[in-house]
Amino acid sequence: MSVIIALDLGGTQIRLAVYPKDGIDPIIIKKIPTIVENIEVFDRLSDLIETVWSVDSVDAISIAVPGPIDPVTDTVVAAGNIPGWDRFPLNKKLSQKYSTPILVGNDANLAAVGEWSYGAGRGHHHLLYLTVSTGIGGGVIIADKLLEGARGLAAELGHITVMSDGPICSCGAKGHLEAISSGTAIAQYISEQIALGHNSELSMNQKQTAKLAYTAARNGDKLAIEAFTRAGYYFGQALAGFLHIFNPSIVIIGGGVSQSGDLFFSPMYKSLRESLMDSAYLDLDNVPIVPPQLGDDAGLLGALAQARIYLEKREYDRLVK
Ligand SMILES: [Zn+2]
């Protein structure tokens, strides 16, 4: 039997799943912590693959990594949470060890591919996927193809400017969407407002989190509600821009912040409607805005889909030659 090995490399965990030729139920699933003292992350990843390498004939190894991939040089451009992975030649290093096609993709992009192939976006040809958690990432499918850009840097949807004089983003720029609408940004805003003397039941908490803010907002805390309203409102403005550019037939919004319901989505819909140049972007085809379906497995299933798309194309090319 031939199998595909899929991996999802996160800041805290490396997850691995072995999938059969068809279907999305893994034969084997494993997870290990990403960072362990004195062992390179690459070695941990490679050793994890080693544990399943001999189970069957491996058609491909496909990996989701937390950073953009340059399709020209086939390097990981930067993986924020992984030390030493700046312009890292992951593909080349694994190819030296394993004689099977190695495919590497950005995790948010692959989550979009996963939802498109096996989740909420099945049957759509134009799809916009966004995840709003500690950061904001996304992926775009246009005419059945993942948008990568010239150097794999496209679809950084959290890093567009929505407030020219706004807070500093994790990337260092000012006023990006991620610096206003992510979970980290919601917590940060509350801390700042408390420091300025605003009243809140959260005042006694030393370290703010979006989760604490959610509970406070549900209890009617004005500052917490304001933080979510601000996040949702600016997110809606950005989303209008994305609809203008990509004109998707479905929008999938996931991540922890998206689970805060009306607190986030009511202001989002308000500003989205206000900012759209024409309601046709949403209404003409009843474009749904829906949650993802694959949960924590989106990265693994995206990596699986990436491998199957590659293998199908290789087979097609072989047949037509
Ligand atoms: Zn940024």
Topology:
Elements: E1 2-9, E2 13-19, E3 28-33, H1 41-53, E4 57-65, E5 69-70, E6 75-78, E7 86-88, H2 90-95, E8 102-106, H3 107-118, E9 127-132, E10 136-142, E11 145-146, H4 178-181, H5 183-195, H6 210-218, H7 222-246, E12 250-254, H8 262-275, H9 280-283, E13 289-290, H10 298-320
Parallel strand pairs: 1-4, 4-8, 9-12, 12-13
Antiparallel strand pairs: 1-2, 2-3, 5-6, 6-7, 9-10, 10-11
Structural overview:
The structure is a single chain. It is built from 10 helices and 13 strands. The protein is globular. The model has no long low-confidence stretch (mean pLDDT 94). The strands form 3 sheets. It has a 5-stranded mixed β-sheet with strand order 3-2-1-4-8, with helices on both faces. Strands 11-10-9-12-13 form a 5-stranded mixed β-sheet, with helices on both faces. The chain has a 3-stranded antiparallel β-sheet with strand order 5-6-7. By secondary structure, it is an alpha/beta fold. α5 (183-195) crosses α6 and α6 (210-218) crosses α7. The chain has helices at residues 41-53, 90-95, 107-118, 178-181, 183-195, 210-218, 222-246, 262-275, 280-283, 298-320; strands at residues 2-9, 13-19, 28-33, 57-65, 69-70, 75-78, 86-88, 102-106, 127-132, 136-142, 145-146, 250-254, 289-290. The structure holds zinc ion (ZN). Zinc ion (ZN) binds at residues 159, 169, 171, 173, 176, 178.
